[in-house]
Write a structure and sequence with these properties.
Distance between the termini: 19 Å
Mean pLDDT: 83
Helix content: 25-40%
Structural class: alpha+beta
Order of helices and strands: HHHHEHHEEEHHEEEEEEEEEE
Number of strands: 14
Largest sheet: 5 strands, antiparallel
Strand content: 15-25%
Shape: globular
Bound molecules: FE2/S2 (inorganic) cluster
Number of helices: 8
Length: 303
């Protein structure tokens, strides 16, 4: 779960691609509006780059130059942000993004075999996109769920303990669309069951379902409003349900709905400096996630 998307840079190539003529026109038209939308926000540049990527599917060089000219921020700084976070890509990516972890814990569990099988099935190397534009394959050094490796994320959905023989099935599922597949059926998405770190009572709410799983029920304070917030219990999912519209980039204070204690981790987010939230995981361990909506840094440590 998270209050939005995951970050952390992959080792895919940072080569720059050139936009089409249509994209050139769209860049000139859309970038000023994106900049105006985020002016004055604390994490403004990340939000601007997120919007550009959402609009064009990647970060065109021309768009980054316009951002630099119009904000006064150096192009080197902007490229520094764009190349640091896994979220961002400097070249067009495929319709489906496959991100395989090759960090140490996943490596010792066979990640290299899994990556090789993806490369063989797709006919591309890591960092490349298939000629039909359907799939991009990337690798990353850690996705924060080491005990469950090898981890593969496809189109934002996490799969644990992936084996070589599962690769074909995962590619077929991605083509068909994961949305049509209840998470219990694929057996590889992993839900977490969490407890309050203060009173140890369960935070799971079977009465409200997201991603076909019981949600994590919390009390939350954001934008001057106190209300119920429910998070998907699927690790890595962005789905939330709130009683009010929580503004992007706002910091959400999270409280236990039983004992009302605030569930802070005491450490800042390594991406945006907002406070981290920490919950106990059933069976032992913790899950941490960033309290800033739209940052989405999160990590799972199982005992
Ligand atoms: S090494 Fe793969 S999730 Fe950490």
């Amino acid at each position: 779960m998270s209050i939005c998307e995951v970050t952390g840079k992959t080792d895919s190539s940072a080569a720059v691609s050139h936009p089409s003529e249509q994209d050139q026109d769209d860049i000139c038209r859309d970038i000023p509006a994106i900049l105006a939308k985020h002016r004055g926000e604390r994490a403004e540049m990340i939000a601007v780059l997120e919007d550009i990527q959402a609009r064009f599917g990647y970060l065109p060089e021309k768009a980054l130059r316009m951002v630099s000219e119009q904000t006064g921020r150096s192009l080197v700084d902007i490229y520094g942000i764009a190349t640091y976070y896994r979220l961002f890509s400097l070249k067009p990516r495929g319709e489906h993004i496959i991100c395989a972890c090759t960090g140490t814990a996943c490596h010792v569990r066979g990640a290299a075999d899994v990556v090789n099988e993806f490369q063989k099935q797709l006919g591309i190397a890591s960092g490349e996109t298939t000629p039909d534009g359907k799939f991009t394959l990337e690798t990353v050094n850690c996705l924060g769920a080491c005990a469950l490796g090898p981890i593969v994320v496809i189109d934002g959905r996490y799969f644990s303990k992936v084996r070589r023989r599962k690769v074909r099935e995962l590619l077929d599922q991605a083509r068909d669309g994961f949305g049509a597949l209840p998470s219990e059926q694929d057996g590889m998405l992993f839900p977490v069951r969490v407890h309050c770190p203060h009173c140890n009572r369960s935070l799971m709410d079977p009465g409200v379902v997201l991603d076909s799983q019981p949600t994590i029920r919390l009390s939350a304070l954001a934008d001057g409003h106190l209300g119920r917030l429910r998070l998907s219990s699927i690790f890595g999912s962005n789905l939330i349900s709130a009683e009010w519209e929580i503004p992007q980039r706002s910091v959400v204070r999270v409280f236990c709905p039983h004992c009302n204690e605030e569930m802070l981790d005491g450490t800042p987010c390594p991406v945006c400096d907002a406070p981290l939230v920490s919950l106990l995981v059933g069976g032992g361990g913790t899950v941490q996630f960033c309290s800033r909506r739209g940052c989405g840094w999160h990590q799972l440590d199982l005992i």
